[in-house]
Amino acid sequence: MKAWVCPGPGQDLVQVERELPEPGEHEILIRVEACGVCRTDLHVRDGELPDIPYPIVPGHQAVGAVVATGARTRIRTGERVGVAWLGWTCGECSHCRNGRENLCDGARFHGYHIDGGYAEYMLADARFCFVLDRELAASTTAPLLCAGLIGFRTLRLAGEAHRIGMYGFGSAAHILTQVALHEGREVYAFTSPGDREAQRFAREIGVSWAGGSDEPAPRELDAALIFAPVGALVPKALRDVRKGGAVVCGGIHMSDIPSFPYADLWGERLIRSVANLTRQDGRDFMALAAEGFLNPQVTTYPLDHANRALADLRSGKLTGSAVLVVDGQQA
Hints:
The protein is an alpha/beta fold. The chain folds into two domains: 2-146 and 276-325, Quinone Oxidoreductase, Chain A, domain 1; 149-273, 3-Layer(aba) Sandwich (Rossmann fold), CATH 3.40.50.720. The chain has ten helices and 17 strands. It has helices at residues 39-45, 94-97, 138-141, 147-157, 171-182, 196-205, 233-240, 262-265, 279-289, 306-315, and strands at 2-5, 14-17, 27-37, 62-69, 80-83, 86-88, 108-109, 121-125, 129-132, 163-167, 186-191, 209-212, 221-226, 241-249, 270-273, 298-302, 321-325. Strands 3, 4, 5, 8, 9, 16 and 17 form a seven-stranded mixed sheet that branches. A six-stranded parallel sheet has the order 12-11-10-13-14-15, with helices on both faces. The longest helix is centred in the middle third of the chain and has 12 residues, at 171-182. The chain is globular.
């Protein structure tokens, strides 16, 4: 099998040939059809996350078919599955026992601790995979498994907020905007200053307003969801939300947050982060996606162009989501 491996921090991915792995008792071997490209993959490539066990195969938004199973799996050969960020939890700590397995201190994640989907085949623990409809297009389903899922959890943590600002209008925000509009909310899109293309894209999806992150919100917001890994957006978003409003940071990594006056936080405003996801998040979101209203906008790349996809993501050239498609598989 071919796999694209990150050999060390700050290094481009390299293609390697490997023997097909054998699944353990709870594992399945998946023939990958498509894998979404996430900003977290850039953080892995750049060495911005702690304790990355290089060399590692990135990718945590994989769709594929099961070709072999371990002795104790509920998923069978021939089924189609999705693989998300969360790859394993201990099941025993207080977080796991109380429905917050996303906070498990021993958790392991695909494309970070466990080899991910930038490959022709991958192993995954069947207990953390989602069975998918065989008719779904792999390229538009893959982004739902992280951009959609993490975004969905971010939106949930905003509560019943009606007027929502999305800061950083990329893969997650363009999917979550569709969810928010489906739920009857208003969305305001904040892009990099001067990024007219992203603002045009946001208006096409149906936002009430689109502008640069250096502009004040045209109306007071109930909540701000930050997907760009830019700490300076946190105090800016605090100034945009009303009293009692929430600023929810949806990324795993962010640059340092600069100091800001207490007055910007006062009024029972709230800053909180999103840490990973639970399997229940996945079940809930995939059930919502099955209603058929989501239309992820994707740019596809052959698996061999993984470095170019990451470079395009870094440069801001992409509109919507980037997806690697494995040659010969369903796109």
